[in-house]
Amino acid sequence: MIKSLSPYYLTIPWVAPISEEICTSYTLQIFVWNGLKNIPPINPSYEITKDNVTGSNASDKVNISPLVNDFIDFTPFDTTVTELIDGFNQYWVKTQILYTTSDEADFVPNYENIQLMLSGYGYGMDGENSQIPSNNILLTGTEFKVSRNGFFILPILIEETVDTSTLVLDSVTLDTGSTYDYAFTSSFTFAQLYSQVRLDSSSAWSTALVFSGTTSPQSRIVSIGGGVFETRIYAFNPLIGNNIYSNIVSVS
Amino acid sequence: MITVISYPDNQINESIAEPTSLLATEMVQSLWVDVSEATTDEYIEIVFNGVTTTLLITDECRYTPIDIYFQNKEGASQIIPFFKAKTESLNTSKEEFESDRGQPSAGNHQFVKFNVQGRGKFKVNSGFLSEEMNETFTQLLLSERVWMYKDEIFTPLNVSTSSIEYKTRQKDRLINYEIELEEAFNKINNV
Q1: Quick one: what percent of chain A has pLDDT higher than 70?
Q2: pLDDT for B25-67, tens place per residue?
Q3: Fewer Cβ close by (within 10 Å): the C or N end of chain A?
Q4: How large is the ipTM?
Q5: E runs forming strands in chain B
Q6: At B18, is the secondary structure helix, strand, or coil?
Q7: Closest CA–CA distance from residue A174 to any residue of chain B (Å)
Q8: Is A131 touching B (CB cutoff 8 A)?
Q9: Is B37 exposed, middle or buried (0-12, 13-18, 19+ CB in 10 A)?
Q10: Selecting from 2.130.10.10, 3.20.20.70, 3.40.50.2000, 2.60.40.10, what CATH number does the domain A167-251 have?
Q11: Binary contact (B32, A76; C-beta < 8 A)
Q12: Phi/psi of residue B144, each to 5°?
C-alpha cells in the first residue's frame, strides 16, 4: 500500500539479479493507472535512469510519492441509502527495474511490484512506508456519535479477487472436410472465444482465430499441413483482466 | 460479510456480502449508513472483519447538526458531525479609486469600489464527545480536502483553525471542540 502524501521508498539493489553483475545504471519504470490490476498501461508514466557513479554494490533508495501523488485528485461521492459504494480515490502503481550491465539480458523488468495507492499519510513516528490498519478499516476509532438525520461512512479495503475461472476444452472432433467442432465448458462469461493450433512437432502457436459464437460447441477450419496437430482455446475474463487458456488437445 | 444493525428494534438490518475486485476504483469501498433509516433506535453496530463499530444516535433538538466530510489519514472519506451552535461570518475584500465623476450631492460616488469579493466563514461546535475523538479532529485539521455535506450537496471548505488544544476528560470533564471553517470559493462567482 502506498500512502502518497508521505514518502514511499523503493530500495533498489545496484546488483542485477539475473547476471549478479554490478550495474552501471538502472532504469526505474513507474506505471500508474486506475483499471484492473492485471492490465497496466503499455507505456510507463515515469521513467528514471540513475547512474551507479561510485560502482556501488549496495542499494539505492528512491521516493516515488512526489511522482505518483498527483494522479489522485480527491473527489467526494455519496449515496442516499445504507449501502456499499466504490471509493474512486485510488490508483494502482507498478514499479519495475531494468538494469544496464555488460549482459544485455539484465535489461528486462526486474522486481516487478504492484501496489494500491491512496492519498493518505503516515505520522512522523510511524516510520517509512507506513501502512493502513491491519483490520482493513480505513478510519480510527470504534465509537462515534452520529446525528439522527445524518450519515456515517465506514471506509474499508476489500480483498483482491482470486482467479478461479476455468476453461476446459472437452473434445475436438472432425465434422466435415477440414472443419472441426470444439466442445468446451467454462466457469466465466466472455465476449469472444479464440482458438490456436500448432503442429504436434512445433512449439509455436498459430495466430488466434475468433469463433463466431461463445457457446459450446463452436467450429473452425484447421488448415494445417497434415498429420497430428494440437489445439487450445482461450478467452478474456474481464473480471480478472486475464486471458484464460484451456487444456491442450491433440487431434490426429 | 458486513452487518449493519440498529438497536433495539433493528430498523436498520443490512447484511452485505464483502465484494472482491481487481479494479482500483473498487478496492476501497465506503459503507454509507443513512442514520435516518433508524427512526427511533438508539444505536447502530457495524461489524466488519470481526471489529464492531458503534454509532451512538443523537437527537439534537435545538441546533441543526452539520456533517463535515473530509479526506482522512488513510486517504479515505470520513464524516464527522457537529451538533451544536454554528456562527456564520463574511470576510470581504475590495479595491477603491477616487473619481471626479460628479458632485456627491448629486448622488455620485467620489470613492468608487471595484473588485469587491467575499468569502464566507463559520464556526461550528462538536457537542460533547469522548476523548477517543481527539484523533479524528487531528485528521480533520490535517486534511487537504474538506466539504460540508448537506441535502446531497458537497460544499467545499477549508479548515481555518490551525491549532487545537487536545481536551481530556480528566482535565476538561466535557469535551467540545469549536472549529472554524472557511468556504473554499468566492462569494461572487468569478470562476
Answers
A1: 99
A2: 999 999 999 999 999 999 999 999 999 999 999 998 899 999 9
A3: C
A4: 0.91
A5: 2-7, 13-16, 20-21, 28-34, 43-48, 51-58, 66-71, 77-82, 86-98, 111-125, 146-150, 153-159, 178-183
A6: coil
A7: 40
A8: no
A9: middle
A10: 2.60.40.10
A11: no
A12: -85, -20
Partner-chain residue, chosen from B24, B79, B139, that has the shortest CB–CB distance to A35:
B24
**Parallel, antiparallel, or unpaired for β B13-16 and B86-98?**
unpaired
- Closest chain B residue to A82, measured at CA: B33
B136: left (phi over 0), alpha (psi -120 to 50) or beta: alpha
Q: How far apart are CA A94 and CA B21, in angstroms?
A: 17
Question: By the CB < 8 Å criterion, does A141 face chain B?
Answer: yes
pTM score: 0.84
Kindly determine whether residue A158 and residue B28, on different chains, have CB atoms separated by under 8 Å. Answer: yes
pLDDT digits (tens, 9 = 90+) for A165-215: 899 999 999 888 889 999 999 998 888 899 999 987 788 888 888 899 999
Helix (H, G, I), strand (E, B) or coil at B11: coil
Q: Is A159 in Cβ contact with B132 (below 8 Å)?
A: no
The structural domains of chain A, with segments of one domain joined by +, span 2-123, 167-251
Provide the pLDDT for residue A226: 65
Assign domain A2-123 to its CATH architecture: Sandwich (2.60)
Joined together, the cell numbers standing for residue B58 give 443523537
Same topology, domains A2-123 and A167-251? Answer is yes
Q: Write out chain A residues lying below 8 Å of B139, CB-based.
A: 140
